Amino acid sequence: MPTKVLDLDLEQLPPVIADLVGYPRALALLRWRGKPVGQVILDVHHDQITRADVLTAVSLLEEVWMRVDRLLLYEILDWDEVDVLQAEPPRATVAVCTRDRPEDLHRCLEALIRLPDDGQEILVVDNNPSTDETYQVVMRYGEKVRYIREDQPGLDIARNRALREAKYELIAFNDDDAVPDPGWLRALVRNFRDPAVMCVTGLTMPFELETEAQEWFERYSPFSRGFQRKVYDWEVINPVSAVRVGVGANMAVRRSVLDLVGPFNEALDTGTPTRSGGDVEMFARILRKGYRIVYDPAALSWHRHRRSWEDLRKALYGYGVGVYATFTHNLLYEWEFFVLVQAINWFVMDQFPNLLRGFLHRPDSLPLDLVVTELTGCLAGPWAYVRSRKAVRRKMMKDDKHSTVGQRSYTNP
Amino acid sequence: MTSTRPSVSVVIPTHNRRLSLARTLDSIGRQTVSPEIFEVIVIADGCQDGTQEMLSQYRAGYRLAIISQAGLGSSAARNAGAAQATGELIIFLDDDIRASPGLIESHFKAHQKNPDSAVIGYYPPRSDDQPGLFRIALYTWWEKMFDQMRQAGHRFSCTEILSGNFSISAETFRRLNGFDPALEVHEDYEFGMRLIKENIPIIFEPEALGYHYQATDIKGSLSRKFQEGKADVILGRLHPELRSTLLMCKLIQFPGLYNSLLLTLAFHLAFLGDVMAKMLYVGLGVLEWLRLRWFWRRLLDGLMAYWYWRGVARHLRSLDEVKRYLEEPGPPQTGPDIDLDLAEGLEAAEQLLDRARPTCAAIHYGPHLVGWIPPRPGAECLRGVHLRRILAVELLPALRRALIQAGAADVFGSK
Question: What is the ipTM of this complex?
Answer without folding.
Answer: 0.90
